[in-house]
Amino acid sequence: INGSNTSITSLQQNTTYVLKLYPKSVAGDFHAPTGPSTAEFVLTAAAQDVTVRCPSGVCTGTSLQVAWTRPTGVMIQPKAYRVASSQVTLNGTAVQSQLDVTDTVTSVVLGDLEKGRPVTIRVLANNRVFPTFYALSASANVIPVSPP
Question: For the whole model, what pTM was predicted?
Answer without folding.
Answer: 0.70
